[in-house]
Design brief:
Elements: H1 2-35, E1 37-41, H2 48-64, E2 67-70, H3 79-91, E3 96-99, H4 104-116, E4 121-124, E5 137-140, H5 143-158, E6 162-168, H6 173-186, E7 192-199, H7 204-217, E8 223-226, H8 229-241, E9 247-252, H9 255-263, E10 268-271, H10 274-289, E11 297-299, E12 303-305, H11 310-314, E13 323-324
Parallel strand pairs: 1-2, 1-3, 3-4, 4-5, 5-11, 6-7, 6-8, 8-9, 9-10
Antiparallel strand pairs: 10-12, 11-13
Length: about 325
């Protein structure tokens, strides 16, 4: 009987011990899941570019076990809204925040608050440093070089002669670098005249209004360069409604723009593979959390896409592995 009692006691002990281990494992698994959370913070919801970034991040997150949360203000001009959302993410104690900032002055305080809370901050879609902050890594293509590539493409389309109008986004480093790179190239050709430029704040409808005014003033306009795809589409809508066929060039490489290129509705875009940039954010965040070394600046590829290379771009053949880059210093003009 004593032996039987000891056996029962041992079994009870083993059962209790196993239950304790199981509870601990479940607790640790739950804790790990809660801690593995990456916040993606676009500047707004009006552009498909940001939706593609989020899509790429979420797909990569599923593959690597991260929970991806995406929040954004409705309009890209809502700088305070973006700061508030970032403050909320800090309060949630997420593992990593990646932000596409439009106004560096507005977002600086939030980045520093995250750093103080020991939350690493990545900046995507930019290689321009946000001064007086400790950003973990910048991920994106070189904006000025992208503008230059669009300028070189415009020169070929116009064969060195023509009238050009520029539609710009929200005043800031994205707008300065993209338009600045384009103007650098165009300025070398005396036969190409920039007849005007105006802001459309990254929005299609506003670009349509801007283009309508521009074409009324300059009915012989040959080409419109827009700092983003959505503004390019807006420009093309205005031109079509006025019975004008002009060249249009944008920047982003959004799926809807690729369809418009195939249809002949717009001419070209600087394709930057936004979905792959989104995936790269998660790849780099995971490396950082594993204590792997990552560069301060990671440059992603960009290529002008038109009907000639559209299928290769869609198939991902024009994507090349990101490389360690360098800071894209702001060239104010």
């Amino acid at each position: 009987m004593q032996t039987l009692g000891r056996l029962l006691a041992v079994k009870k002990y083993r059962y209790f011990f196993c239950m304790v281990i199981l509870v601990c494992l479940l607790f640790n698994a739950t804790y790990a899941t809660e801690k593995r959370k990456i916040a993606i913070l676009p500047p707004g919801t009006t552009s498909p570019f940001h939706s593609e970034i989020a899509k790429g991040a979420q797909e990569q997150g599923e593959d690597t076990g991260f929970r991806i949360e995406v929040q954004a203000p409705e309009r890209e001009t809502d700088f305070k809204g973006q700061v508030k959302l970032m403050t909320d993410f800090i309060a949630q104690k997420v593992n990593v925040i990646s932000v596409n900032a439009i106004d560096e002055n507005a977002i600086r305080i939030a980045i520093n608050a995250a750093t103080k809370a020991k939350i690493p901050v990545f900046v995507h879609n930019s290689l321009t440093p946000i001064t007086n902050t400790s950003v973990t890594e910048y991920i994106g293509y070189n904006q000025r070089n992208g503008g230059r590539a669009c300028g070189e493409y415009a020169v070929k389309l116009l064969r060195g002669r023509g009238k050009v109008f520029i539609i710009e986004g929200i005043p800031g480093f994205h707008q300065i670098e993209r338009s600045g790179g384009f103007l650098e190239v165009i300025g070398r050709y005396s036969g190409i005249k920039v007849v005007g430029k105006d802001f459309a704040f990254w929005e299609r409808d506003q670009a349509t209004e801007v283009t309508t005014r521009a074409l009324r003033k300059n009915p012989d306009l040959d080409l419109i360069f827009a700092d983003s795809d959505e503004m390019e589409i807006g420009a093309a809508i205005a031109a079509r409604s006025m019975g004008r066929k002009i060249y249009t060039i944008g920047i982003d490489g959004n799926p809807i723009t690729l369809d418009k290129i195939e249809e002949g509705f717009v001419t070209a875009t600087l394709g930057v593979y936004p979905d792959k940039i989104g995936a790269q954010i998660i790849i780099q965040a995971e490396k950082y959390l594993k204590a792997e070394k990552i560069p301060a600046f990671l440059e992603t590829p960009a290529v002008v896409v038109d009907k000639n290379n559209l299928e290769d771009y869609k198939a991902g053949k024009l994507w090349t592995d990101p490389v360690e880059g360098k800071a894209e210093e702001l060239n104010r003009r």
